[in-house]
Design brief:
7 strands; about 25% helix; single chain; 3 helices; about 20% strand; alpha+beta; two-stranded antiparallel sheet; three-stranded antiparallel sheet; Beta-Lactamase; disordered C terminus
Length: about 150
Amino acid sequence: MPVTVGAPRQLLRRLREVMAERESAQIRLDKVVVLIASNMVAEVCSLYLQRRDGSFELFATEGLNREAVHNTHLKPGEGLVGLIAQQAEPLQFPDAQHHPAFSYRPETGEEIYHSFVGVPILRGPTDLPDWRHRTLFFRDPEDNIIEIYAEY
């Protein structure tokens, strides 16, 4: 399914609406991953939150085993999630399970998926040069690039 010109704006508008709802943070994050997965026509969309100690916790998922939410943790720098966080930029892995940084988590049911695209969500001041103008991107099934320019 090709992404239409208005799709990125519609997605951003819908994400803003979901985050403004008077629901618990967990319910809103659950809605966000479903919304992104359906909009990007992706089988899986997961959100890992970086904790104060630098570790990562699976906080929401569409496509992985829901029992893994809040039960899957990665050490700082561990796995593809840790690599993406360290580099603070989107990365794509066509054969994720064979990447040296891949860290298998059986509770997620991830073994049936092969490719992986990760996009860090950066918040607040950072030591990255010109962090206000970073480009986040996703690749759709047609290999078009949707770019989101963030200004804070």
